[in-house]
């Protein structure tokens, strides 16, 4: 039977205000052409993920005490989450806003980091201490997501290097002449995310399906637990869809495509859904589709 649709509450944290338009181009690290998309300036934080868990009664990070993460980590990137968790988080945002949120592909992530230039880090080929959270800084854990602004991109995207490995939706391929293929989550998996979320034992049906064949997904960017060489653009690792680790997290992307065929939010819809900052959002045309853009 068709899963029951829902409309989740609008998140309290800034959403489109923290998205940067990536106009796209050729990414030399993956050999792929990247179209226009939006990417969050920061990884999803502990407080944002906690709000999602509370709003949707989603099981929290196992290390948290119930729904209460450590207050001192509120602005740190959330860790201990997997790719499926990130899909459900994006479906929550989709339900609240009417726009398609997702995890970026590897080629999108790489292009956002370097703007299509072939360099080791967003700022150049040499690692600069203080530009990112790696073992050079001798950390004991993650940093707040806005702690290293000097290491950000020209578009203000931060933490693409260090702090935590970031999930992508690209299947990992070990062959040196291949950079993997992008994986589109099958409708049945999105249906699971939209309906039977709250099975307390977190068992996900493992019948025959594309996600079984696509067991490994690319992670990028390095973390606080590794040296700067692991944060370089020529490094990538993999993780499974259901693996949770203390060194990995995610940030959100937006395809700038309204949900549903022909769905274009009206100004009144935007005003009702986005409240105080609705007047700072406009609909514009990017690559033939409706998109979200920040007014200058």
Summary, kept brief:
With 296 residues, this protein is an alpha+beta fold.
Uncertain runs are 1-6, 175-180, 192-214, 261-296
Mean pLDDT: 75
Radius of gyration: 18 Å
Strand content: 15-25%
Count of β-strands = 13
Shape: globular
| H and E order | EEEEHHEHEEHHEEEEHEE
Percent in helix: 10-25%
Give the helix tally. Answer: 6
Question: What summary fits the major beta sheet?
Answer: 5 strands, mixed
Query: What structural class results from the helix and strand content?
Result: alpha+beta
Q: N-to-C terminal Cα separation, in Å?
A: 46 Å
Oligomeric state of this protein = single chain
Chain-wise SSE layout:
Blueprint: E1 19-22, E2 25-27, E3 32-34, E4 37-40, H1 46-56, H2 83-97, E5 99-102, H3 106-114, E6 165-171, E7 181-182, H4 187-194, H5 210-213, E8 216-220, E9 237-240, E10 248-249, E11 253-258, H6 267-274, E12 281-286, E13 289-294
Parallel strand pairs: 6-10
Antiparallel strand pairs: 1-4, 2-3, 4-11, 5-11, 6-7, 6-8, 8-9, 12-13
Features:
4-stranded antiparallel sheet, globular, disordered N terminus, alpha+beta
Please provide a written account of the structure.
The chain is of the alpha+beta class and 296 residues long. The protein is 19% helix and 19% strand. It contains six helices and 13 strands. The strands form four sheets. Strands 6, 7, 8, 9 and 10 form a five-stranded mixed β-sheet that branches. Mean pLDDT is 75; it is low at 1-6, 175-180, 192-214 and 261-296.
